Amino acid sequence: MLSLTAYEKAAFHSFIFFSYSLMLLLGANQAFGQKNDDKKVAFLADVHLQDVYADLGEEEFKGIYNPQNGKYATIRTMKAQIYSTRLFNENYFAFHEALREVVSQGIKIVVLPGDFSDDGQPMNLSALNTILSEFSEAYGLRFYLTTGNHDPVTAAGSPGGKFDFMGPGGKPQALVSDRSFLRDNLPTDLPVAFSDQIAYGGYADVLEQLGAFGFYPSEKDLYWTHPFEVLDYEGYNFQESKKNAALANRYFDVSPTDSLPDLSYLVEPVEGIWLLGIDANVYFPVEGTDVYKGSSVGFNLAKSHKSHQLKWIKEIAVEAKKRGKTLVSFSHYPLVEFNDGSDVLLKRTFGPNRFQLARSPLPAISTAYADAGIKVHVAGHMHINDTGIFTSEIGNTLVNVQVPSLAAYPPAFKVLTFGQPSKIKVETHRLQEVRGMDEFFPLYTMEHDHLKEQKDTSIWKKDILSAHTYLSYTSHHLKELVRLRFIPSDWPEGHAGQLLSLNGLELAYWALLQNHDDRNEFLTNRSLGSKSLKQLTKTLRKQGVERSSLANMSGLELITAFYFIKNGDQLAKKDMDGSNWATAVHLMQTIARLTPGQNEAFAHFMVNFAQIFTAMAEDTPSDHFLIDLQEGVVEDLY
Fold first, then answer.
1. What pTM was estimated for this model as a whole?
2. Rounded distance, CA 199 to CA 213, Å?
3. pLDDT score for 545
4. Taking the CB of residue 486, how many other CB atoms lie within 10 A of it?
């Protein structure tokens, strides 16, 4: 028998303890997918890729010459970006950065839930094909796409174009596919160029360029099917599935004479995970043409206009449960209301056609899909970071994960980790540094000089070009978007003007006045009585709020803070100055407690606004969190 010394025994026991601890650690990591990266899925939403160095195939207009690299840049003007809810140019570099981050984390499965291109144009579909193919070949990434309202804009190819490309001297340049797309009221000095690369692509064009990325089965997939074939897991055959996946087999009737494609599919990329891609685009005929154009509304229409999908989803959910598969659906469109329960109040305060309320799923819609068996749904479309939880009357819970856009604030993507039984970990990965982000800044400077020379009254602030990170850049973009577009278009003019004329201290003083006549008089005279001001200062001090913080907060900053929290949720709280955020929340909580009189229109408006603000400030975890599929709850991991 082998005899061990005391030292050898101690060393042996230490080795056994270390080995056992290591096994436990590896087991825990395995449970969360840290050592099994094919059980992690990255979701990159609303890429809105535009090829910033496209070959337009025309000598008439090749883009604007970029002296930094000697290339012709096919970019849109900064003014166009500022007035849009998304960037058109820098997101090209952000997409590459996000994919590099995915690679660095060892993730192999990547989902793009719609709006992967600017508008489904040939030049942009081709550019996306190139990028996805390069990352697939170099790093073994496997991509799964679904359609969005921007891809395709029309069900079949149709004339298209943009009127805000950047031309020589930083001036706008029109680029259209053909003359039929030209408008009657174009400025006489706007140069126009033509290229078939800017036409709207249709479903056939999307499949031609991107079919290999989820829309068709791959030999690497364990299972793949679509709504128009029998769900047969046991008898699955790749060659048969490939034949059945032809576009001709994936049409449904929309009228007695017309039918349209539905590119929905179910795939099992790795053992145990079923990804359900739902094509929820709904198209309507354009009067006097044979064109079907998208609505961008999503499931509020898709439930009835694509009724075949819900029956198919129910079958899938039953089969997934039977076979012990974890089912996650994804679509461009959300399945749960994304305004933190404020839809009714938003409609009452701002009107039914503001804040994209038509896109927010109605309770009946969420009920239908929750009761069909969907427990977790991942969506884009809204360019926001949010988590929504809905439970139907019969107790079925649906968790909707909103993935932010890479082309807007807050730029980020989500990673879902499948490890623990009946649990999914969700992590939000933010883009900070983006290589090449400032490549077009000198061209924007030229554009700004031109707008200044023209005395453009809606000129954008040049300090956006001082941004050193992509996060800062998108933050600047949102601030300008609020100032130049959202306030003029979404807010009642009189109430907006009143709020913009007040600072935080004045609002706090006004909100603490007990009599509605006093409040109305203050709005007219703006006189802060010394006695009342002393009392306010004392009250603020007790509540830990600095009077100077309120005095330095403008009405515009308060409105802007609202849009940041609306779009960024938990992420925005990290980005805003801590004391300023606490001051804004305190102010809005104070206003929300007001009881306005009948003749206080502004007070009624502000109480509603404050209640919406505070509802969005106290939300479900949306950064790093754990979804418990059995209990239907979300647990914050911070």
1. 0.93
2. 22
3. 86
4. 20
